[in-house]
Amino acid sequence: NNTFTMIHQDHHDHPTTKVLEPRLLHDSQAPPLPHLHSPSHFQSSTGNGGTHSNRSGHPYPLQSERQRYHHHYSQLDDQRATIMDSDQYTNPKHFNAYTGATVPPARDKHRSAAPPNSANNNPNNNSQPSTNGNAHHAQLTQKISQYTRGSDRRQVLRSLMDPQQLPRMHTLKSVWVEDIAAAEREAARERAALNGVKFLQVKSYLATGSDERPDVRNPVDSYFLQTLREICGHMCDMDGVDADPMALYGGLLLRLSRSVSERDALEIVTQWACGKGELVALPLKRRHHDPSSKLAVPIDVELYVESGNVHAKVTMSHVLGLYRRTDLESHGLKRELSPWNALILANQNPSMQASSSKKLSKIQYETLASPKFLNIKPWIFIDADVVERINFGTGSSVRMLHVSVPEDKNSGYVKKW
Fold this sequence. Notes:
By secondary structure, this protein is an alpha+beta fold. The chain is 35% helix and 18% strand. The chain has helices at residues 22-25, 62-84, 87-90, 96-99, 131-149, 153-160, 180-188, 223-236, 245-255, 258-273, 325-333, 340-347, 353-369, and strands at 4-9, 15-20, 51-53, 59-61, 169-171, 192-194, 197-199, 279-283, 299-306, 309-324, 380-391, 396-404. Strands 5, 6, 7, 8, 9, 10, 11 and 12 form an 8-stranded mixed β-sheet that branches. A two-stranded antiparallel ribbon has the order 1-2.
């Protein structure tokens, strides 16, 4: 019963049907609905002065009910039209998503709202352990530390798979890329799926046998980016859409930076899943780390227009690995990982988290690029998906990290990783 259908008689006595929107039916300002429960109540009555009987048997005037509903919902439609005609929905200067701003366009006093990425708007904000989550975070840290030192991989997996200890969703800050041209070159090397259409061919940098990276000096384009620009232009030309195609394209490029997305996911996993330094979280080597490595999972991009606004959903999947620090040190990486334990403990202190996170990230990518880091299989695999939903009309966005511990990859029977 998500919709309510009201059938009435027009001046020709022909029945017409009006379907009211489900969202409006739950409005607290809506007048009380008559009790319509039987088709017999919709039949034209005779001898009762143009009235129909309600559920309790008492007649009610059909004409007055129709006027009440028409007056109420016409006011809501007028308010909706006023909102859609406002500058914040139609003026291209409000494409805050292009600049990576976290604050939406200014609203009037009747429509004030918190920034979309504010913790007040995100009840599942677990990127920073909350007061309630501190106990679970401390308990998980202690268990991972204890079980890793005892080489009990099964218990570590069991702890990480418990959503009560490791939250599955974490709120991320809005993405920020300083060099938009570098982001475009990086996106040109990615495989992607745009509204279900797959673009799986990318230019090979090793075809000539040269170590020179062509994206260092020359701009690189791809069929995916060409199609993306064309789609942006077509959407901005649609009726009711007042948007700048290049601003829309630039806003999407910010979300297509795999290196930025990977660093954000790695920071959260390092904060939650490394114990007291016994484990080291590293991304699995892919093409953007090493040109000789395999390609990463294609980026999934969805674009659509709703209510005159262009919306987008960008999903980027990452495969991370948890390595035992003792295993990495046995491969000659002891010097690189010497400050790891102290930085992990400092990272659990909110006042020192910003500085320690940068140092941890530097150690992680130096370890990944080291020639000593070769053919080392992760102790535990973790899937991290960064999903962002953007409304380019209002400049608002929500960016989330979904963390999971896949059973198939951690079963011990999977050889290709």
